[in-house]
């Protein structure tokens, strides 16, 4: 079974982004970029399944503009076998469009499993996996925290409100990862070197027949309502007095 | 045309986030119908019918909808979509899983986690863990929107909408429910609580959560939350996690104990009305959002605070 893992290039999770003063967007020049953390978890899970003999090949796919291949390279350095880069002029392709592109890739590659992140930490959309699953007509399990592959099926434990839920899905299926699924490995130096020789196939959205124009028009990007530091209190008694005065206890 | 609101419930009762999402749904300006989908879900439908401003409650009650698995529920949503201009749901685990499926099948780009309704086709939503707010206009003919319920007040009761039973739609096969572990708790639900006490990595163990954090929560009548570090270390269950990738809350009072205040944690609680931070590092970023900061050792300060609050309430 092949496993397809869509990985997104996003602003590194340690960067505190800045909104441009004119409201036209977020400052992205000279900002550190990384693989979306949930996608590292997705790659790790795919690699573990391959190492356990449950999968034969791990393919990393990313949709984005120049330098997106760096993110695919990171996946290859972790251990993915090959990459697919769907090149676009701009970053920020909408989840619905990404899902349509991924459907085409799935149809061409025929994986038994697609593992995505539950959300990209830039748009925080939490949509793409569900959309892909719906378009393919495959079963889905979002927010996976444990995965057990069986014969033609997969058991997935999911993080839901209030606790955990376990589903059994017929393969092929679509999963999205939650934080506690695994702890992703670091790429070793020899593997980083090896990754340089692994193939990345380039495609364009036009080749795939997908229209990239956005459906949501971004009118403006605003600074969130700020919050200023209050005061440090000297004692527990003072704190309780302040909370009473604020009317919250 | 009308707006369809998907209710969050557990069949027996309606989750209070539904009334908050209703406020957002009503802001679209069209009549609001509420869909209650589940198995033996009439009690939840009756509760939904009492919400002010609901024009009609649709009840889809069938074994296929037990546990609200995404595939059959999305099929039902697609079948109903033709009659509605807008499909709206609270951003809970169930609807985060279902709504994008519906959106894809009717070829609409979803707006996730709306925090404000500016016009029937214009919404605001947080991006980058809430460090920016995007104002977007939907160009599709229909709108599919999930609602960050912490950003909306609840609509009150006083309505008496009719309940109409609807028949199940064709459901795709392929997903089977195996089991569920839902923690039973006497405490209020995180997303509905007026007060929340959260513990971080510094709490150190599950035993310490029970010994130090929970008594303070009990003294305040509060729900208990946690940072990701505390959840990952096994000190607290996953559904207590507050943050960018956990629950987003905005209670009247949020007490952060031994939590440093990483952006991903702040994303889940910085809209709380009053924030208290207890941390031994006076430079911890959590203090930059706290109204009241207490610098010191949590193992000394929290029991003191618990006792002081018990005294104040007595
Ligand atoms: C993709 C992604 C998503 C994430 N999502 C979330 C999320 O949803 N929610 C979340 O919380 N985090 C999330 N994180 C993790 C986040 O970046 C931080 O690592 C995490 O919030 C840290 O938890 P903490 O504050 O408990 O621990 P730490 O950062 O280790 O802080 C512990 C604090 O306790 C203080 N302390 C130590 N001992 C004592 C004592 N005896 N008394 C008082 N204070 C003491 C220390 O001074 C310190 O400030 C995410 C990270 C990533 C990459
Ligand atoms: N441009 C992209 N390229 C590759 N994968 C993507 C892209 N956008 C989203 N994804 C995948 O979809 C997941 C969820 O993203 P989102 O729906 O945007 O929150 C991510 O974790 C990725 O696995």
From TrEMBL, chain A:
Its cofactor is AMP. One of its GO terms (molecular function) is electron transfer activity. Coiled coil: none annotated. InterPro entries: ET-Flavoprotein_bsu_CS, ETF_a/b_N, ETF_b, ETF_beta_N, Rossmann-like_a/b/a_fold. One of its GO terms (biological process) is carboxylic acid catabolic process. Residues 23-212 form the Electron transfer flavoprotein alpha/beta-subunit N-terminal domain. Keywords: Electron transport, Transport. It comes from the Bacteria. Pfam families: ETF. Heterodimer of an alpha and a beta subunit. The electron transfer flavoprotein serves as a specific electron acceptor for other dehydrogenases. It transfers the electrons to the main respiratory chain via ETF-ubiquinone oxidoreductase (ETF dehydrogenase). This is Electron transfer flavoprotein subunit beta. It comes from Ancylobacter tetraedralis.
UniProtKB/TrEMBL annotation, chain B:
Its cofactor is FAD. It comes from the Bacteria. It holds the Pfam family ETF. FAD binds at residues 201, 227-228, 241-245, 258-265, 279. GO terms for molecular function: electron transfer activity; flavin adenine dinucleotide binding. The electron transfer flavoprotein serves as a specific electron acceptor for other dehydrogenases. It transfers the electrons to the main respiratory chain via ETF-ubiquinone oxidoreductase (ETF dehydrogenase). PANTHER family: ELECTRON TRANSFER FLAVOPROTEIN ALPHA (PTHR43153), ELECTRON TRANSFER FLAVOPROTEIN SUBUNIT ALPHA, MITOCHONDRIAL (PTHR43153:SF1). This is Electron transfer flavoprotein subunit alpha. It comes from Ancylobacter tetraedralis.
């Amino acid at each position: 079974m092949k496993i397809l893992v869509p990985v997104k290039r996003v602003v590194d999770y340690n960067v505190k982004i800045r909104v441009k003063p004119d409201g036209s967007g977020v400052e992205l020049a000279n900002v550190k970029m990384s693989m979306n953390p949930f996608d590292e978890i997705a790659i790790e899970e795919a690699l573990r399944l391959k190492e356990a003999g449950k999968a034969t090949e791990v393919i990393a796919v990313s949709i984005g503009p120049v330098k997106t291949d760096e993110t695919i390279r990171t996946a290859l350095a972790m251990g993915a076998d090959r990459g697919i880069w769907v090149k676009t002029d701009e970053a920020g392709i909408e989840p619905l469009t990404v899902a349509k592109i991924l459907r085409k890739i799935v149809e061409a590659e025929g994986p038994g499993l697609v593992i995505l992140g539950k959300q990209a930490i830039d748009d925080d959309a939490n949509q793409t996996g569900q959309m892909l699953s719906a378009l393919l007509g495959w079963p889905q399990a979002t927010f996976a925290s444990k995965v057990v592959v069986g014969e033609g099926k997969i058991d997935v434990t999911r993080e839901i409100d209030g606790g955990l839920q376990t589903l059994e899905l017929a393969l092929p299926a679509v999963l999205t990862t939650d934080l506690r699924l695994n702890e992703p490995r670091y790429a070793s130096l020899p593997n980083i070197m090896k990754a340089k020789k692994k193939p990345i196939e380039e495609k364009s959205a036009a080749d795939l027949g997908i229209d990239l124009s956005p459906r949501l028009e971004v009118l403006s990007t605003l600074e969130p309502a700020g919050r200023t530091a209050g005061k440090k209190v000297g004692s527990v008694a003072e704190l309780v007095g302040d909370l009473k005065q604020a009317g919250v206890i | 045309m009308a707006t369809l609101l998907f209710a969050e419930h557990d069949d027996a009762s309606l989750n209070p986030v539904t009334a908050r999402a209703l406020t957002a749904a009503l802001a679209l300006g069209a009549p609001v119908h509420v869909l209650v989908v589940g198995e033996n879900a009439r009690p939840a439908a009756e509760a939904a019918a009492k919400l002010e401003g609901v024009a009609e409650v649709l009840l889809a009650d069938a074994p296929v909808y037990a546990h609200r698995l995404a595939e059959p529920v999305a099929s039902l949503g697609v079948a109903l979509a033709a009659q509605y201009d807008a499909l709206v749901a609270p951003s809970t685990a169930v609807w985060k899983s279902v709504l994008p499926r519906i959106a894809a099948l009717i070829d609409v780009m979803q707006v996730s986690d709306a925090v404000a309704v500016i016009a029937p086709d214009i919404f605001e939503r947080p991006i980058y863990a809430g460090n920016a707010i995007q104002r977007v206009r939907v160009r599709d003919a229909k709108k599919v929107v999930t609602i960050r319920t912490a950003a909306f007040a609840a609509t009150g009761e006083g309505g008496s909408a009719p309940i109409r039973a609807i028949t199940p739609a064709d459901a795709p096969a392929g997903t089977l429910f195996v089991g569920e572990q839902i923690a039973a708790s006497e405490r209020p639900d995180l997303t509905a609580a007026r007060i929340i006490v959260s513990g971080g990595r510094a709490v150190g163990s599950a035993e310490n959560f029970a010994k130090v954090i929970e008594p303070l929560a009990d003294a305040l009548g509060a729900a208990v939350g946690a940072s990701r570090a505390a959840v990952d270390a096994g000190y607290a269950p996953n559904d207590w996690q507050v943050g960018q990738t956990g629950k987003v809350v905005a209670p009247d009072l949020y007490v952060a104990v031994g939590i440093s205040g990483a952006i991903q944690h702040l994303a889940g609680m910085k809209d709380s009305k009053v924030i208290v931070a207890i941390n031994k590092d006076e430079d911890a970023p959590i203090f930059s959002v706290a109204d009241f900061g207490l610098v010191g050792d949590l193992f000394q300060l929290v029991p003191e605070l618990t006792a002081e609050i018990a005294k104040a309430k007595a």
